[in-house]
Design a protein that fits this description.
The complex is a heterodimer of chains A (655) and B (91).
Chain A: E1 27-33, H1 39-47, E2 64-70, E3 73-79, H2 91-102, E4 107-113, H3 117-130, E5 134-139, H4 141-146, E6 149-151, H5 153-160, E7 164-166, H6 175-188, H7 205-211, H8 230-234, E8 238-240, H9 247-256, H10 262-305, H11 310-348, H12 351-364, H13 371-380, H14 382-388, H15 395-404, H16 414-424, H17 430-460, E9 471-474, H18 482-517, E10 519-520, E11 523-524, H19 525-539, H20 544-552, H21 560-570, H22 581-589, H23 594-605, H24 611-621, H25 624-654
Parallel strand pairs in A: 1-3, 1-4, 4-5, 5-7
Antiparallel strand pairs in A: 2-3, 6-8, 10-11
Helix pairs in contact in A: 10-11, 10-17, 11-16, 11-18, 11-21, 12-13, 13-14, 14-24, 15-25, 16-17, 16-23, 18-21, 19-20, 20-21, 23-25, 24-25
Chain B: E1 9-10, E2 19-25, H1 29-37, E3 45-51, E4 58-62, E5 65-69, H2 71-75, E6 77-81
Antiparallel strand pairs in B: 1-6, 2-3, 2-6, 3-4, 4-5
The chains are: A alpha/beta (655), B alpha+beta (91).
Chain lengths: 655, 91
């Protein structure tokens, strides 16, 4: 369901290994399994939490915990990253292996994909060698049914000797049975179900201990979990009734990854999403603005009834309320459209195809194609994107992905881009919105281009090395649950980002008010600061206030625009807010031109990662040096880019 | 794992739609193990599904899953081409 409140920012990091039991008798259950089998969906359904889900391998890169109860029994569920085996090859698989091997749980639920049970069985067998406290959950049974893949769960249970439950976690089918199986298995404890992996023979634990052998006494003489291969376990259990079950996916892949269609379709999709966002946001933006405007007089009236002095009234309403109204009406509609659209793309299974299409380019820059996935996460939140880099096996390539992640505009910066574009480049009419979408696509493509360039540059300088391997699973396409996606992304993500913008805008507002109202030697501190920053900012085609806003926006990029507005307002020019275009008028009055707008966009795209991202980088790399480099690389590129653009524009104007 | 034998060819020589059975691989420990975990086991049937727009990597259909790998790795996985390669389902 896309990134959510708990999976972005610092929430994206591990919750640690401390288990939070509510009662003594609570069962601790670990959800293990191959990537993209639906562990997080099972987790979300059971706990009611909203872990990041989507149709690609590697969304979950850290352990998450949740609490569920069923028929009076409490369960502490731990959602662990997916892994193909217990031999860890990447950081995220290491997190999974450490937890599975720690044994700090009462039962391990190994979630399997019904569409490729045999491949999943390898991990089941490996985990069975470590512990017998296992419940096998065969998920995606609904999809298997649709593709006419039949699985004999009873027979599988007999062969494995541990409970096997079939589920369709998306709609909650089979979860009751899963609860019961987990309870039964956990209460039984180690050794009680001494089933033989492979033949299903259930021996008496005491007798086994007496024999002192790990050899099973079944007629096959097999060792527990040792002798049977995944293929043998699944023989005769899985039946593909329709040999052409992948035909529909085949046709889609021909289109989405075709030699001629692949890349253009990718760019067009991006463009289409942006266009929908810009066009769709226009109307509700106006509505919201009118609504807030109608409140203004009532607020003033209400406050005067309370007997507040005029200056407080005006500061609250014309200062804070007006900024809040602008932020909400400018930022909310595009986010409420863009996030659901992007989540639909994520749930459909298209993202891994993007990584597949672009891997050659990343390889040329001596980086990894999976970087495309971490970039996609960066669209949501750069901190989450940085943590997401755990899916990249090679440490060198992972560092490159971490350092370049902030070249993709996140949640906080994206609305700024859209707002500036809508104000300065999208007039009315269909043609204008197409132009605006084209411009936004261009900006994003520039960000992607810069990512390639920076990756190449890093590979040639600080992080020399050869490209390592690339192995990525391409999941089947899935129809996204559109209704759910819309509700979740609006309430979870949009409101979160907006809330953060408003929350951090309030203290920034007070700071600005102080800066604007206290004077040193006859000049307000704000004008002093802005004046001090004005010279370097002019070189980049901006002004001191803009640069100050970017600097003060370090804690959260969402507040750059609010700070800019407040600072301009504090300098005294109260404008008539007749409609949304008044915002543009305010900026134009401050000397903004189309070139300023472009510079601001460029600098929004590339400046420095926000404070949360920096902290996350520090935590993920464990090194101050790489954190500083991650800060400097986009910072220097942004300054250079803006200076270059400004220089070119002044040159053209002079000619 | 088995060494390269006479009639074995690299997986990268398969064209989209062709199939082969894995005879062995000569890959480093890390990636070799990972690919085995992902289903590239000796004896597994592999079908070349399609290539990326730039010609590399290539997606292979193995054990019911599509997995994309680069030509460097594919070249070090040796297969026996299935006789009379009828067009597979990904052709």
């Amino acid at each position: 369901m896309g990134l959510s409140k708990s999976s972005i920012g610092l929430g994206a990091l591990d919750e640690g290994r401390v288990l939070h039991k509510k009662r003594e008798g609570d069962i601790v259950a670990a959800l293990a399994g191959n990537p993209n089998v639906g562990k997080s969906t099972v987790f979300n359904q059971m706990t009611g939490l909203r872990q990041h889900t989507g149709n690609w391998a590697g969304k979950t890169v850290a352990n998450a915990q949740g609490y569920a109860s069923y028929e009076g029994q409490g369960y502490v569920l731990v959602d662990i990253p997916g892994c193909y085996s217990l031999d860890a090859h990447s950081a995220e698989e290491g997190v999974a292996r450490d937890f599975i091997c720690s044994g700090e749980y009462d039962v391990a639920v190994v979630v399997c994909d019904a569409l490729c049970l045999e491949r999943n069985m390898g991990l089941v067998l490996q985990i069975l060698q470590k512990t017998e406290k296992v419940v096998v959950c065969v998920n995606l049974m609904d999809e298997a049914e649709k593709k006419q893949i039949c699985i004999d769960l009873k027979k599988l249970e007999e062969r494995l000797g541990v409970p096997v439950v079939g589920t369709a976690a998306r709609d909650g089918t089979g979860l009751e049975e899963l609860y019961l199986a987990m309870k039964e298995r956990a209460k039984a404890g180690e050794g009680a179900w001494h089933g033989c992996v492979g033949c299903g023979y259930r021996s008496d634990a005491a007798a086994d201990a007496q024999r002192g052998a790990d050899k099973c006494i079944c007629k096959y003489g097999c060792r527990h979990g040792g002798e049977w291969t995944a293929e043998e376990i699944c023989r005769g259990i899985v039946e593909y009734k329709d040999k052409e079950y992948a035909a529909a996916d085949r046709r889609k892949d021909k289109f989405f990854t075709g030699k001629i269609t692949g890349i253009p379709v990718m760019v067009l999709l991006l463009f289409f999403i942006f266009w929908l966002t810009i066009v769709g946001a226009n109307y509700p933006s106006g509505l919201l603005h009118d609504f807030f405007l109608s409140l203004e007089d009532k607020l003033i009236y209400g406050l005067s009834c309370l007997g507040m002095p005029v200056w407080i009234r005006e500061m609250l309403v014309y200062g804070m309320f007006r900024v809040v109204a602008w932020v909400v009406s400018v930022m909310l509609p595009p986010m409420a459209i863009f996030f659901p659209l992007f989540t639909v793309l994520e749930d459909s299974g298209y993202l891994p195809r993007v990584a597949f299409n672009l891997d050659k380019c990343f390889k040329k820059c001596r980086a990894c194609g999976k970087q495309a996935l971490t970039m996609a996460m960066g669209f949501g939140c750069n901190a989450a994107g940085v943590v997401g880099c755990r899916i990249i096996d090679s440490p060198r390539e992972r560092l490159i992905a971490i350092i370049t992640n902030s070249f993709v505009p996140c949640n906080g910066r994206f609305p700024t881009l859209i707002a500036v574009i809508t104000m300065f480049f999208a007039g009315m009419g269909a043609g204008a919105s197409l132009g605006a979408a084209l411009l936004l696509t261009g900006v994003i493509l520039l960000g992607i281009g810069l990512t390639f360039f920076a990756s190449w540059f890093l590979s040639a300088t600080f992080l020399k090395g050869v490209p390592s391997s690339f192995a990525l699973e391409m999941p089947p396409y899935r129809r996204p649950q559109i209704g759910k996606v819309v509700i979740r992304s609006v309430f979870d993500r949009t409101m979160f980002v907006l809330g953060r913008a408003l929350l951090s805008a309030a203290p920034a507002g007070i700071l600005l008010w102080v800066l604007a109202n206290f004077e040193i030697e006859g000049m307000t501190m704000l004008s002093r600061l802005a004046g001090f920053l004005d010279r370097p900012a002019r070189l980049m085609g901006m002004d001191g206030v803009i640069l100050l806003a970017f600097i003060l926006g370090l804690p959260a990029n969402e507040i750059v625009v609010p700070i800019m507005l407040m600072a301009y307002l504090a300098e005294g020019s109260l404008v008539e807010v007749s409609d949304l275009h008044a915002l543009k008028q305010l900026l134009v009055n401050q000397g903004w031109t189309w070139a300023t707008a472009v510079s601001v966009m460029l600098f929004t795209l590339v400046h420095w990662p926000c404070a949360t991202t920096c902290l996350t980088i520090r935590k993920e790399t464990g090194s101050m040096k790489w954190t500083v480099i991650s800060f400097l690389v986009p910072c220097v590129s942004g300054c250079l880019l803006c200076m270059l653009f400004h220089g070119l524009v002044s040159l053209v104007i002079k000619l | 794992m088995a060494e390269k034998r006479k009639n074995n060819v690299g997986l990268n020589t398969l064209k989209p739609g062709e199939k082969g059975r894995i005879a062995g691989m000569a890959l480093g420990k890390g990636i070799g193990e990972k690919l085995q975990d992902m289903g590239f086991l000796q004896g597994s049937l592999v079908e070349c599904a399609y290539r990326s727009p730039f010609g590399d990597p290539t997606a292979y259909f193995v054990k019911g899953v599509l997995i994309a790998i680069r030509s460097e790795e594919a070249g070090n996985i040796y297969i026996e081409k299935e006789a009379g390669t009828e067009m597979g389902q990904w052709a």
